[in-house]
Design a protein that fits this description.
Layout: H1 2-20, H2 41-45, E1 52-60, H3 67-80, E2 85-93, H4 103-113, E3 122-130, E4 145-149, E5 152-156, H5 157-164, H6 172-187, H7 224-227, H8 240-248
Parallel strand pairs: 1-2, 1-3, 3-5
Antiparallel strand pairs: 4-5
Bound molecules: zinc ion (ZN) (2 copies).
Protein name: Membrane metalloprotease
Organism: Mesonia maritima
InterPro entries: MetalloPept_cat_dom_sf
């Protein structure tokens, strides 16, 4: 009897260790939504695990993005991924804070308001338009957005709105579209953070950014001081090196 009891304890212990050592997903085998930046690049690009994508967009009153910007993001993703459908759901949220925000604060807001998570065949992305600047921003170099987890993006919408109001500034749709697609580019693993570089093109002075001229993934696309020079008649798009990396990792 003692022997049986001992065997049972040993067996439970092995089972317990077996489960707890798996930190890349829950017990169902579906990858989690709180992994590091770039870790879901392949899952976002290809359709071998997730055939569809759902994007949950939240914003407090007065900080809603333009519909056209979200449509532009959708077109960008349809062009670069193999998802059979991409749904964008927008929702107003209550926020009692007004920034500036650290990424830790944004993450804790996400924990309170995010309702969409990965399911068996759908990968979920969370985008929050924040009513404040990024903590630590100084002078004219203000951060427009940050991709901070495998499926999470914050857009500093207060910064975008005040930038749009400056004389000679590009339209709100242009800035929102550039910021959304640039940050999504990081979720897709660019540059060298989940989608391996096929040819060396990372900017030696700006980690995870591209050195190709006019590419969407250039570092200046992330800051209000840098983005101005990037608009000709068009919103910036990915250069050929970045597109090669996405294609090699399951994208189009
Ligand atoms: Zn960036
Ligand atoms: Zn590039």
């Amino acid at each position: 009897m003692k022997q049986i009891k001992y065997t049972f304890y040993l067996l439970s212990l092995i089972l317990f260790i077996g489960c707890s050592s798996d930190d890349s997903g829950d017990s169902s085998g579906i990858p989690d939504n709180d992994l590091g930046l770039g870790q879901s690049a392949h899952d976002l690009l290809a359709n071998d695990i997730f055939s569809t994508m759902e994007i949950e967009v939240v914003y407090p009153e007065g900080f809603q993005p333009e519909n056209e910007s979200l449509q532009n993001l959708k077109s960008f993703l349809q062009q670069r991924t193999y998802k059979t459908s991409i749904d964008i759901n927008t929702r107003e949220i209550e926020l009692n804070s007004e920034g500036p925000y650290s990424i830790e604060q944004i993450r804790s807001i996400e924990n309170n308001v995010r309702t969409s998570f990965n399911t068996e065949d759908k990968i979920s992305v969370f985008i929050i338009f924040a009513n404040g600047k990024k903590q630590g921003d100084e002078g004219t170099s203000n951060t427009l957005g940050t991709a901070y987890q495998n499926t999470s993006i914050v857009i500093f919408q207060e910064t975008i709105i005040s930038f749009t109001n400056a004389p000679g500034a590009p339209s709100k749709t242009s800035i929102e579209t550039t910021t959304l697609t640039h940050e999504f580019g990081h979720l897709l693993g660019l540059v060298g953070i989940g989608s391996e570089q096929q040819n060396e093109h990372e900017d030696p002075n700006a980690e995870a950014h591209c050195i190709t001229e006019n590419c969407l993934m250039r570092a200046e696309a992330e800051f209000s001081s840098g983005i101005m020079g990037m608009f000709g008649d068009n919103i910036p798009d990915l250069g050929s090196e970045c597109i090669l990396d996405l294609q090699a990792n399951g994208g189009r």
